[in-house]
Amino acid sequence: MNLSTRGFAIKLLAPLVALGASALGVFGQASLTVNVDKPVHSVAPTLWGIFFEDINLDADGGIYPELVRNRSFEDSDQPDFWTLSDSNGGKSAFAINSNQPLNSFNRHSLHVTLDGSLTLENKGYWGMNIVKGDTYIFKLAARTAGSFGGPLTVRLLGESGNELARGEVTGLTQEWRYHSIHFTAATGDPKAHLQISAAGTGSFFLDMVSLMPGKTWKDHGLRIDLAQSLDGLHPAFMRFPGGNWVEGEDVAHMYHWKYTIGDIDARTPLWNTWGYNTTQGLGFHEYLQLCEDLGATPLFCINAGMTLRDSVPLSRMGEWIQDALDAIEYANGPITSVWGSIRAKNGHPAPFGLKYMEIGNENGGPDYRQRWALIYHAIKDKYPHIQLIADVWGGHPPSPAPDLIDEHYYDTPEFFMRQATRYDNYDRKGPKIFIGEYAVTQHAGKGNLRAAIGEAAFMTGMERNSDIVAMASYAPLFVNLNHRAWNPDLINFDSSRWYGLPSYYVQQMFSENRGDVSLSSSVESPQTESAPNAGAIGVGSWSTRVEYKDILVTSEGKTLFSSDFSRGTEGWKLLGDGQWTVTDGALRQNSENQNVRAIIGDKSWTDYTYSLKARKLGGAEGFLVLFRVNNDDEKCWWNLGGWGNTQHGVEMNEILTQAPGSIETGRWYDIRIEVKGPSIKCYLDGKLIHDIRRTSLASLYASATRDSKSGDIILKVVNGAADTIDTTVHLKGANKLAGAVNAIVLTSENPADENSLDAPYKVSPKTETFNIKFPDFQHSFPGNSLTILRVSDRP
Question: DSSP string spanning 32-49?
């Protein structure tokens, strides 16, 4: 992931109510034909997987259940996330010290100067989840200086200060020594904190102050509920440890797997590109172990000698090549090999079975192609069975040809619906496709039903084309709700709870109903509008300072709106981080922030002509002229001088058209947009730049497979329209099908519906079983729904 990544009423209507069918009525007729007796190809067994990137405090503060934040005091030169209180007028103090470190990898410790009595407190990651009756393991390294010899009193306290557990550390010496306490919580609190207190005079040093739950998933050190949330997705593979996280901001902050194995206190912490320090407690070994525990094939993404800012000189690439070879040996080598023996020492004598390695993340261009070739040849010469995955960013696949190509997509629900046919005509002779990252990120709220339906439509296309699309994984996977660096994210959590987006259930439904043979199928359905034909107007900017005047909206000779700035920006809805003023009769925006907008008008306006004058005052791009605006987060505009001031483009939930063009600074432009039904015409200084007739979207999307083991025929049907669609289902060649059908339906009353910690299952699958006559039957698919029909092929 890159920081710059931008887009059955079976005539049984009663069950529809229980399944949350749309109340908007029935929208036309449709048909779905499945040729049960015509298998097309095998479904890739690796198709549905997961992608783990530490982006939203997913590891520390998430699935890696260390409860103390900044346990090793490496986060900065200050004791971040620790507080000190004393009873002697502030004479006690603490500071980061590096004079006598615990080891050469862990340079910082906490130096505490004691004069009277004091307490140190750490609240962890927005509260420590302490569960009544559970065991917790406290551990620290300590040494003294001067006269202080202890003891240290250690307590777990509830949010209100009530004591949950208590212990004591004694026997401090002038040499570093580890001490541990096993706590059993007398009561629980999801927002508990740790307190360490001492009394006397002198000083002492602390390092690796840790509090971990005694119970972890499969006893392998991970938070149980979050690991179970992954297990519930039944992933065939797991890509790790990330995208940007692998690259790093610069060479000094690249991810090196060798720094993440072995003793916890000897792992090298690393600043994460997403804005926090990482302990590396979830390291290369733990990732491999998690894959094994999930029954998922490991897919390791390794640095290609490139960062977000620069590249390693070719003359120094030997280290990165060796890093890749050693990673494979660590994962797969015999215990008689160097790195295989280290794996065994770390508790896993048997090989992990690494099969896939991705070289780089969202890299491209000449630098990448040179480094790809070096790493490719080194790996294939020694490990020819390893499947190598290439990035293809801004160009053609590198040479030699990769086994798979990684493609990433982030956009609107409608974009993904259009992409449902993307792979129908892909070249079957080239590398297979790994869709390593995809998600609806626009018009998604914090992860709503409509976003999930867009993704589901796209997934039917992946499954239909799983002879070429071999692997796919949603991104990102996790978010700590107290640190959201990306939106939306599949699994949301705090210290004690989690919930899945509607998209989580889409992933789960596809994974649990895979099938292993693709069946020929076809859909005929009504078309639905991809964007509204009505809406307000507005102006805006992207990394540019601009001003607008003479704004006029007319329809059939009548004026709907004419700008009057005598009262400043009154009446305008200002969105984004902008600096709006009225200057010399023009609406001026003085910030160079992104996605700054001002909206005005009536959402019921339909066909109209919208004209205005615009001038660029400075910055990177040009103008945003908004039309048919219905929602604050909606992208519905003419983007003039976009894409680095190289293109003009109409964007309505997706890019409809582009034309070369740039905007000059300092001159006034005349802009006119004419909208009528599906027609959009855009004029710049009287010249027609775009003449678009917006195409509608298909309503139904489907794929069909057979599960050879159970004999079931599995139909996955997505209704992307707002209303229910009455559909005739033809199961051609299905002479032996039984009359029972299981229907699993994901839908809700409103496409904007979301789940939350307090309502985790508001949008979640519902199941019905019913009997019908074969081979043809009628079924009504609710609006904005994913339906899975399982039909037994055994009498």
Answer: EEEEEEEEEEEPPTT-EE
Read off the DSSP letter of residue 685. T
pTM of this prediction exceeds 0.90: no
What is the rounded distance in angstroms from the CA atom of residue 423 to the CA atom of residue 718? 18
Q: How far is CA 454 from CA 419, 462, 748, 786, in A?
A: 10, 13, 14, 10
For residue 436, pLDDT over 50 is answered with yes
The answer to whether residues 122 and 161 touch, using CB atoms and an 8 Å cutoff, is no
Q: Which residue has the higher pLDDT, 511 or 693?
A: 511
What DSSP assignment string belongs to 745-761? EE--SSTT-B--SSSTT
Q: Would you say 711 and 732 are in contact if contact means Cβ atoms under 8 Å apart?
A: no
Lowest mean pLDDT among 74-78, 545-549, 732-736: 732-736
Record the tokens describing residue 36, joined without a space.
């049960």
Sorted by sequence, the CB contacts under 8 Å of residue 421 that are 6+ apart come out as: 461
Q: Record the tokens describing residue 297, joined without a space.
A: 């094939």
Show which residues are catalytic.
362
Query: Would you call the peptide bond into 79 cis, given omega within 30 degrees of 0 as the criterion?
Result: no
Strand order in the sheet with 724-732: 766-771, 740-746, 785-792, 712-719, 700-706, 517-524, 26-42, 724-732, 776-781
Mean pLDDT of 444-449: 95
Amino acid at 30: A
- CA 410, 415, 417, 419 torsion: positive or negative? negative
Contact 289, 281 (CB under 8 A): no
Going by the DSSP 8-state scheme, the letter that residue 30 receives in this structure is E
| Model pLDDT for residues 723-734, shown as the tens digit of each residue | 999 999 999 988
Reading the block at residue 787, the tokens are 């339906």
User: How sure is the predictor about 775, in pLDDT bands with cuts at 50, 70 and 90?
Assistant: confident
Write the Ramachandran bin of 225: left for phi over 0, alpha for psi from -120 to 50, otherwise beta. alpha
Contact 66, 72 (CB under 8 A): no
Q: DSSP code of 630?
A: -
Summarised one tens digit per residue, pLDDT across range 214-234 is: 999 999 999 999 999 999 999
- For the chain, what is the radius of gyration of the CA atoms? 30
- Measured torsion, CA atoms of residues 443, 445, 446, 451, in degrees rounded to the nearest 10: -40
pLDDT greater than 60 at residue 20 = no
Closest by Cα among 77, 87, 322 to 198: 87
Span 252-290, pLDDT tens digits:
899 999 999 999 999 999 999 999 999 999 999 999 999
pLDDT at residue 397, as a whole number: 82
- Whole-number Å distance between alpha carbons of 284 and 342: 12
Map 277-313 to HEC letters. EECCCCCHHHHHHHHHHHCCEEEEEECCCECCCCECC
Q: Quick one: angle between helices 318-332 and 365-382, nearest 10?
A: 40
CA distances from 535 to 197, 217, 627, 681 (A): 62, 51, 7, 16
DSSP lists the bridge partners of residue 115 as 201
Please give the pLDDT value at position 795: 55
| Sequential DSSP letters for 522-589 | EEE--EE-SS-S--EEEEEESSEEEEEEEEEEEETTEEEEE--GGGTTTT-EEESS--EEEETTEEEE
CA distance 372 to 196: 51
Region of residue 779 (phi > 0: left; psi between -120 and 50: alpha; otherwise: beta): beta
**What pLDDT does residue 1 have?**
60
pLDDT at 358 over 70: yes
Note the pLDDT of residue 443: 84
**18 confidence band (pLDDT: 50, 70, 90):** very low
What mean pLDDT, rounded, does the chain reach? 92
CB atoms inside a 10 Å sphere around CB 18: 11
Res. 591: pLDDT tops 90? yes
Sign of the alpha-carbon dihedral angle for 771, 774, 779, 784: positive
